[in-house]
Amino acid sequence: MSLLRAAILIVSDTVSADPSTDKTAPLLIGTFAELGAKIWATPAVEIVPDSLDKIQRAIKSQTDGYGNEAPPVNLILTTGGTGFATSDWTPEAVKPLLHREAPGLVHAMLKASSDVTPFAMMSRPVAGVRHKSLILTLPGSPKGAKENLEAVIRLLPHAYIPQSNDPHLGATARARSSPYPMLSVADAVRKIWEQCPSPVPETRDMSPDLVGRVIAEDIKAAEAVPAYRATSIPPPLKAGEIARITTGAPLPEGANAVVMVEDTVISSTTDDGKEEKEVEILTDELEVGENVREPGSDVKLGETILKRGMRITSIGGEIGVLAAAGIKRVPVYRQPRVGVLSTGDELVDISYDGPLKRGMIRDSNRPSLLSLIRGWRLCDEVVDLQVARDTPSGQLEEKLRDGFRNHDLDVIVTTGGVSMGELDLLKPTIERSMGGTVHFGRVSMKPGKPTTFASVPFKDTSSGRRGDRLIFGLPGNPASAIVTANLFVLPCLQRINGLEGLGLEKVVVWTTSKIKCNPARVEYHRVVVGVDEKDGTLIARSTGMQRSSRVGSLTSANGLLILPLKQGDWRTLTAVETGSRNHEVVPTQLIAQLAKASQGDVQRSISLLAKANLIAKVKNAKYDGYRLTYGGLDYLALHSLQKANAVYSVGNQIGVGKESDIYVVSDEKGVQRVLKIHRLGRVSFKKGVRNKRDYARTRAQKERGAGSWMYMSRLAAVKEHAFMTALHEAGVSVPMPLGQNRHQIVMSLVDGLPLRQIDQVPDPAALYAELIDMIVTLAHMGLIHGDFNEFNVMIKEEAQPEGSGDDVQLVPVLIDFPQMVSVDHANAEMYFDRDVACVKRFFERRFGFVAESQGPSFHEVKKGIGQDSTRKRLDGQVEASGFSKKMAKELDAYMAEHGVDGDATLLKRPRAIPLWDEA
């Protein structure tokens, strides 16, 4: 089950003026870590002065949600303002907000404090529920606040309120609208990734049954191929005489070339005419080694034949090289066990021979999904769990528990029972009966809107294996089930298998006919993709009517067509972005003016864009208005990059971090590149500080140090692109910058591994010296990376010329420049020393290498700036490129306030791997 979310609200004029004086929040966070680490996430902290209005605003922002960005928290703890001073307003601020009070919690807190001091009776605590959030007011004393929290923290999880309907209530009592927030497809996939277990390596016997498995570590040849001198074309020739030899057989000793039979004629035969006696060779171009394979000419002993992350395909190449190289045991990742379950009273099995009665439907989803999932070859076994009837008595729960317990399933895929009907039982069964967590229950897409994803805690009593098991609740309509399985179940299984490229491949296609866009949600239109015989371009042909219940729309389909926005909707989206430069919430009237469209057309476009999560209406706005979401900004930037020919098609996500997402993309010729999307605003909602959620750079926001997420994300991209361009032009080993628009950057793909994933190199001292030299070289150019560590250095292998003595050379490539500063920066020495120390610590920890010297001194290095005429100062060059000192200061302040460190975690196995075999 995912962790519950808490927020701490410090109410104090003193702490609001100087946050460093707060002593309460660290104690409360420590209490959560000590007594509720497996239940509660680290709480976010917000500080407000002793103001009734500001206290209420802060609480509402956490309980009611702010726009569509963050779900309400489960628990809010206020500290301070519960005494009798004239400025103590917390109980008066909180009590009117409560929908239900919780006097038992108040009694428990007062009793706990009264056991310590009689002054506890002077506190005025309040407790209760607002919407789905529990609110407790704690005293301002750090010691008292800690005592109050310790008294109730173990019981607080029981106050968590499930969102699903109670199936035991009547039809008139059930909710009439879904309580689950609508997520974009990208956000839904991200939630799935967060819950996926890490790949588990295992070793299997080498056999053709390994098809579909993913290699868990680099595999080196146990034998050379060929193991002896062999011929590849018959027959062979022994010096001075004739000898037949079959293809691949060992050469007779002394032979050094083979001639093909086609290049000879018989001059004479033996007396019986059965053997050649003399042969005339017709070619005079025969050389030593002709048609001979030397030992190891195909595969050398110890050569890497398959790399970690490669998949064993049914084509046969991987199995063939493993067999030829003498590999008996193969390191692969464990494959999950998956079950498929249909739900519904109306379903009959495909084996049913009788006539269908009124209300009966043949179960087509289960055999379709079993066929689909087995065809992926990503599962150790796919189990048919049959059908669960729609009975509140618990048959669905029994089927799910039986699948996890008796079949040891990791994932169960169900169809049906996920909508709003009184017999749609999946969500309440998971939340109320199995203690699970529904991570999302609605997705903005067509088909597949009610798609559900959940996790349930489970311990296998026989094996002792403990951990969350995953449940995908797919819609009951056939087309919806297949589409959502490809979009959500597939990337989950790929990640569990250790694959790095997740989801379906994305390509640009031309349609053979006009296809109408869905006006409300992103539509996945079933198509048949083929190649145009005239020009070789990819074309897509619709499979016909796309109604979600029409199983015929899946016939022959091999692709899902994502339909773009209409031109009018595009103008409206651009208008919202333009208005966001001066407005936190863009008024509808202004959107119409900027879009140069009528109010009616704009209202229609706004409704559609909001449903697609490209824009959002902000709750509690003083006027009717909207703001741009990250999805909308992504759409605008990607469109501009495509028009600039920087991106032609988008592939799979290969990295995710607190402040950025990384995707593989390609140009029009299919050359792979990297797309980095900066998302500095993502940290704001983890911090829980409302003034970090603003969307426009107003004067008030500047005064309190807050920044626009759009503006700051764009600044981060502009900065990274400027530094990358300057460094690449100066010959520093960095990716080649290929484009930048808004908050997105396109760069060349580095074919290597992050330094943190490598646990063995041939010469640690040489690599250490090269990295330290890189730090010094940057400083001589006027720059300091500021975050030079194993996360931001890639290592790639480059083949060396023959005769150099080495087959390959390890080449470090520097990436990620969010904290790069000039040597004239106020903290330049601290950043420089930190970069050097990070490299030293990593080499000591990982490779056991301890440098003899302390490393370069910043003051000594700074003296060398400008000494080498071949090295220009790049800090001034970056400023001249458009990234000004003012921008740098704004970005530095924002990043310092939000704790941005610039890391982006590649979706790879976290365990270190050997890059070099000393043998």
Protein model, in words:
The chain has 919 residues and is of the alpha/beta class. The chain has seven domains: 6-159, Molybdenum Cofactor Biosythetic Enzyme, Chain A (3-Layer(aba) Sandwich); 182-198 and 335-496, MoaB/Mog-like domain (Molybdenum Cofactor Biosythetic Enzyme, Chain A); 201-225 and 299-333, Molybdopterin biosynthesis moea protein, domain 2 (Alpha-Beta Complex); 230-293, Molybdopterin biosynthesis moea protein, domain 3 (Molybdopterin biosynthesis moeA protein, domain 3), CATH 2.170.190.11; 510-562, MoeA, C-terminal, domain IV (Beta-clip), CATH 2.40.340; 567-717, Arc Repressor Mutant, subunit A (Orthogonal Bundle), CATH 1.10.10.10; 752-914, Orthogonal Bundle (Transferase(Phosphotransferase), domain 1). The protein is built from 24 helices and 47 strands. The protein has a six-stranded mixed β-sheet with strand order 2-1-3-6-5-4, with helices on both faces. Strands 21-18-22-27-26-23 form a six-stranded mixed β-sheet, with helices on both faces. Helix 19 (709-729) packs across helix 24 (885-898). The longest helix is centred in the last third of the chain and has 21 residues, at 709-729. The two termini are 46 Å apart.
